[in-house]
């Protein structure tokens, strides 16, 4: 099942109208209808996450990556997993990063690589026995 079909499925299971969902998302009813018809194929990550919250399912289910609608919604949140493993700053950085287009993501990656070439990072790697980047 495709994203647009799952959106419609979950909306109808929740007995919600296109207008109700659109108002919560902050979009026009016509935009919501275009999501469901498949006319809009590239839906923003944040919008998919909001829809999943509205419908009580996981973003993975809506995207078609999982057939389990409610599979551990809390544990499946990538942002929460990153926050637990690497801290809130890393989760916040990823949240911002995914909003960038490809060109700006490449610029960020280049900047991080430049930062990692700084002596304070290369000396840490040397201490751990790793070769510098």
Describe the structure.
With 133 residues, the chain is an all-alpha fold. It has two domains: 3-71, lambda repressor-like DNA-binding domains (434 Repressor (Amino-terminal Domain), Orthogonal Bundle), CATH 1.10.260; 103-128. It has helices at residues 3-13, 18-25, 29-37, 45-55, 59-63, 73-76, 78-86, 88-97, 102-116, 119-128. α2 packs across α3 and α7 (78-86) crosses α8 (88-97). The longest helix is centred in the last third of the chain and has 15 residues, at 102-116. It is elongated, with a radius of gyration of 20 Å.
Poorly predicted runs are none
Enumerate how many helices there are, as a single number.
Answer: 10
Q: How many domains make up the 3D coordinates?
A: 2
Rough shape? elongated
Order of helices and strands: HHHHHHHHHH
- Assembly status: single chain
From the 3D coordinates, which CATH architecture of the largest domain would you assign?
Orthogonal Bundle
> What is Rg?
20 Å
Question: How many E-type strands?
Answer: 0
The largest sheet, given as strand count, sense and whether it forms a barrel, is: none
CATH class annotation of the largest domain: Mainly Alpha
Q: What is the first-to-last residue Cα distance? A: 43 Å
According to CATH, the fold-level topology of the largest domain is: 434 Repressor (Amino-terminal Domain)
* Helix vs. strand class: mainly alpha
- Could you report the average pLDDT, rounded to the nearest whole number? 84
CATH H-level homologous superfamily name of the largest domain: lambda repressor-like DNA-binding domains
Give the fraction of residues assigned to helices: 55-70%
- Report the portion of residues in β strands: under 5%
């Amino acid at each position: 099942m495709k994203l647009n079909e799952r959106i419609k499925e979950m909306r109808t299971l929740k007995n919600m109208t296109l207008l109700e969902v659109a108002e919560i998302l902050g979009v026009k009813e016509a935009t919501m209808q275009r999501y469901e018809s498949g006319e809009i194929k590239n839906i923003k990550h944040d919008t998919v996450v909001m829809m999943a919250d509205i419908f009580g399912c996981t973003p993975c289910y809506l995207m078609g990556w999982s057939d389990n609608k409610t599979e551990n919604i809390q544990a499946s949140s990538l942002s929460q997993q990153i926050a637990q493993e690497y801290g809130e700053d890393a989760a916040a950085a990823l949240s911002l990063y995914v909003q960038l287009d490809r060109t700006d993501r490449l610029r960020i990656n280049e900047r991080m690589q430049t930062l990692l070439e700084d002596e304070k990072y290369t000396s840490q790697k040397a201490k751990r026995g790793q070769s510098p980047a």
